[in-house]
Amino acid sequence: MILLELFLGFLEVGCFSFGGGYAAVALIREVVLSRGWLTEELLAYIIAVSESTPGPLMVNLATYVGSSQAGAAGAAVATLAVVLPAFCIILALMAVLRRFTANPWVRALMTGLKACVTGLILAAGLEMLAGNLLPGGLGGGLAGASGPDWLALALVLLLGGFWFGLRPRMKKKPSPVALILLAALLGAAAYSL
Amino acid sequence: MKHSAKLLWQLFTVFFKIGLFTFGGGYAMLSLIDDACVERRSWITREEMEDLVVVAESTPGPVAINCATFVGARQGGLPGALAATLGMVLPSFLVIFAVSRFLDRFLQIPLVANAFRGVKLAVCLLILDAGLRLLRRLPRKPLPIGIFLVCLGLSLAGSLFSLRLSSVVLLLGAGGLSLLAYALSRRGGRSR
Q1: What is the pLDDT of residue B30?
Q2: A175 lies in the same domain as A116
Q3: Which of A87-96, A144-153, B79-88, B125-134 ranks highest by mean pLDDT?
Q4: Contacts of A127 in chain B (CB under 8 A)
């Protein structure tokens, strides 16, 4: 039964994750959190692992969740499900590749979907950040349930300053992996002391 | 088209190598595919590669999978598509499967757990960065901006008041709305 659930859950991800990569995070997050397959924390860890290992984010997440829920069979089923829609769609579109992208209906549809994905991904990022800074999450924090995590806030300001402030001005742009390594060093230092 | 075993093996190994060296996924890999499939082997033409990138961006699923499937199918039909896609997926599958066996235990080491508390924050920033980059490319027109604001607002409201609106519903709504707007604009154009 868990195999069928994994298949359907990741088929949904494979069918609706437009834009690839991080654009899919909002949808994946919803699927794995609502089914209790991952916690918010573990999801962030696996995204980081995924940045530092080969392969597309979606495939990595499917493999991990499948494996943690149902071993090797689960990993195979979840990975198959996330890949299947893309595989079938490309086979179907082979012959009409150019006409497809030039079609005004397709272009209109894509503009709307991209606008929606932009909103979803920014909301997912803000929610995750709020969950880390305010122990009760976005809702709990506004309700005044608990104070913010000041150490985390300081780390976010440091890392954000590096990524959004310093990085655009650097000649050789550091990769996301560099940011993750920096964060690991800072985290180990800040929380161990 | 003759699907010799040699061609299938070649498709598998070329994409296995690409899959193995694609860190961070997605766009980093496009240049590797371009080099292996256009420059070195002429499996597909430069124009096909360019079209492919646009299609990969506008269809669901990982961009890497879209590309592997297309190149494989062009060279070796359905068996070719299967060989190339399997080659692309296998390296990350094996690595992550191995990671999943020991990540839990690894995270129980206090120093590692502390390091990952920092890493968590970096991941949030990377997600926000991806969102901001999409936002910068959004056409400055009322419809896309409106859809963006509504989707952002509804998702955030969902987490504030713990009422969950599925992303799929929002995606379908946004897609339907933009098709409707296009249909209306065409009609308006004709009646004038």
Answers
A1: 78
A2: no
A3: B79-88
A4: 155-156, 159
Do both A81 and A165 map to the same domain? no
A75 within a domain of the structure (yes/no): yes
Domain range for A183 is: 150-192
CB B110 within 8 A of CB A193: no
What confidence tens digit (pLDDT) does each residue in A109-158 have? 988 998 998 999 899 899 889 888 887 666 655 555 567 788 999 999 99
ipTM value for the complex: 0.86
Distance of residue A155 Cα from the nearest chain B Cα, in angstroms: 7
Cα B169 to chain center, whole Å?
20
Instruction: Name the residue facing B179 among A47, A56, A108 (closest C-beta).
Output: A108
Q: Say which residue the tokens 């999978």 belong to.
A: B65
Most B CBs within 10 Å: which of A40, A87, A101, A175, as the mutation test of the B interface?
A87
- Identify whether residues A92 and A159 lie together within a single domain: no
Question: What pLDDT band is residue B34 in, cutting at 50, 70 and 90?
Answer: confident
Same domain, A60 and A134: yes
